[in-house]
Amino acid sequence: MSQGISGVGMTSQRTRARMVKRLRDQGIRNESVLAAIETVPRHVFVEEALASRAYEDTALPLGYSQTISQPYSVARMLEILLEGRALGKTLEIGTGSGYQAAVLAQLTPEVFSVERIDALLIKAKRNLRAARQSRIRLKHADGQFGLPEAAPFDTIIFAAAARNVPEKVLQQLAIGGKMLFPLEGENRQTLLLIERCGEKNYTETRLENVRFVPLLAGIE
Ligand code: SAH
Hints:
Layout: H1 5-25, H2 31-39, H3 42-53, H4 64-67, H5 71-81, E1 90-93, H6 99-105, E2 111-115, H7 118-130, E3 137-140, E4 153-158, E5 160-161, H8 167-171, E6 173-184, E7 189-198, E8 201-210, E9 213-214
Parallel strand pairs: 1-2, 1-4, 2-3, 4-6, 5-9
Antiparallel strand pairs: 6-7, 7-8
S-adenosyl-L-homocysteine binds near residues 142, 159 and 215.
């Protein structure tokens, strides 16, 4: 009986502690972000996604393993968004496995997330239930249009890259709000921080290079 549920729990807890140590070594300093990452059982999202991939053919263009945000990228993005402020009402575009949404939910009570692939969203729901994250509001929708019914958002975080920031999403950023967008360039992607300073006043800051899957149009 040594391989019981508590055994699995212990292993995952230890693995998470190691992951957090690695994130510290990689330069992540924000303690709330590190605590949030330590809290979320990533194996619930990763294993489910990898297991699911075995049952899918290539009809889903994104291999499921590609859809789970890397802990470093989640941590880094949250650290940037949390600088000098709270996240407030947050919209994530690209739910994928639900992992990043679960981390977000440790940092703010109001998380909305949209995903264009229904099959992924169904799995994300299951993962989030398994991780006991019931407050996140999910919607099957094309994130290029944001989530008008819940706008405005204090924070918007894109989990997929594109050549232009979707206009509709910009409009749904609250004044004083911050948004992170992986901008697709000629041969690299750059993380773009957009702050809305006034009704028609936005500032843009180019940060580090990143790698995200493409933001695609329409739902399936
Ligand atoms: N945050 C996720 C990672 C998602 S990868 C996680 O932690 O697992 C990017 C996701 O964005 C994919 O699931 C992809 O289907 C989704 N996506 C791409 N274009 C989209 C769009 N226009 N609207 C909503 N979701 C989109």
